[in-house]
Amino acid sequence: MTKLEQELGKLRDEIDSIDRQVLELVSERARCAQRVADAKQEHSETEADAVFYRPEREAQVLRRIMERNGGPLGDEEVARIFRQVMSSCLALEQPMHIAFLGPEGTFTQQAALKHFGASVISVPLGSIDEVFREVESRAAHYGVVPIENSTEGMVHHTLDMFRQSDLKICGEVELRIHQHLLAAEGVDLEGVTRIYSHQQSLAQCRRWLDARYPAVERIAVSSNAEAARRAADEKDDNVVAIAGDMAAELYNLNIVAETIEDQPDNTTRFLVVGHQLSGPSGKDKTSMLIAARNKPGALYHLLEPFHRYGISLTRLETRPSGIATWGYIFYLDCEGHFSDEPIQSVMKELADDTLELKLLGSYPQAVL
């Protein structure tokens, strides 16, 4: 045995020993999670009353892990490992059903798995309305829906659903969107006849497509996963799709051109909706819906209290009210939790000076 083989043998023995310790600790954590579940059920009137998923608690744990990480693995990589450990332990307490805008293979599913880990039951649905209804009926514990893209802006349908739904926002997910050109085996890339994708993805890759396939028909479909399915089914017609890694794997397509989006930092933000209000995590956002009175200076009077109390606004969007001509609803996000005294003061002032004020939720800012 050479000196190198001896050295490698010792290192592998050390790794085997560490693996055994890791396994013992993970198993102990899982047993502790089971005891947590037993305690919650014991002190709840019914099983439905027991709250197993606490987004503020999970955010605090992940932030602490990242703060304590000493390398060599990066902070986000370590957090993703712990996210999956937490997901698996939570599944022992209560297997969670997570509704998302489907079909399978969409970026929304990817966002759901990023936030909840892989140990959940994913429920693909055909529309944002269906996701809200699935959670409202308690057929799913939580739902994940897109809210905005850094390139294409807000998803207005999601905003409008909050006007009619009593669901609360209990989390957010930020997902870096990488668009790929996908093709089935044997497709002639020089003779492409059609390009399928969601309309936002086609817009996000417009310059790349104009440079390489300017004369090829671009067909918008309901989702990138649907585009990938069509590319697989219609491969004999020399069609391709624009979609992500998950869709490529699901439909057995080759990635023939990677990261073709025009903006390299293209990011989509998703919201997690459920029935509960989240407690403060220490680094939160609050979202609310406001119907202002139709009078001069209405927007100023809406925004001025936030400035006076030192609250930072992170998003302000306007949508037609649907009630009066030229009437508008304002959706805004601000830093902080609704239980914080400054936000409480602002909400009290706004409630006295607006037609409607609806708290959509306070939730931990995205950790990963």
TrEMBL record:
Domain of life, per lineage: Bacteria
Listed GO MF terms: chorismate mutase activity; prephenate dehydratase activity
Positions of the ACT domain: 287-364
Reactions catalysed according to its record: chorismate = prephenate; prephenate + H(+) = 3-phenylpyruvate + CO2 + H2O
CDD domains per the UniProt record, alphabetical: ACT_CM-PDT (cd04905), PBP2_PDT_1 (cd13630)
Primary location recorded for the protein, binned into one broad class: cytoplasm
Every Prephenate dehydratase domain range: 97-275
Domain Chorismate mutase, first and last residues per copy: 2-97
Keyword Lyase assigned: yes
Cell compartment(s), UniProt: Cytoplasm
SUPFAM superfamilies from the UniProt entry: ACT-like, Chorismate mutase II, Periplasmic binding protein-like II
Coiled coil: 1-28
Sites marked Essential for prephenate dehydratase activity: T268
InterPro entries documented for this protein: ACT-like_dom_sf (IPR045865), ACT_dom (IPR002912), Chor_mutase/pphenate_deHydtase (IPR008242), Chorismate_II_sf (IPR036263), CM_dom_sf (IPR036979), CM_II_prokaryot (IPR002701), G/b/e-P-prot_chorismate_mutase (IPR010957), Preph_deHydtase (IPR001086)
Record-listed E.C. numbers: 4.2.1.51, 5.4.99.5
GO biological process, one term: chorismate metabolic process
Pfam families: ACT, CM_2, PDT
Gene3D superfamilies xref list: 3.30.70.260, Chorismate mutase, Periplasmic binding protein-like II
Function text: Catalyzes the Claisen rearrangement of chorismate to prephenate and the decarboxylation/dehydration of prephenate to phenylpyruvate.
PANTHER family noted in UniProt: PREPHENATE DEHYDRATASE P PROTEIN, PREPHENATE DEHYDRATASE-RELATED
Protein's recorded name: Bifunctional chorismate mutase/prephenate dehydratase
Species in which this protein is naturally found: Motiliproteus coralliicola
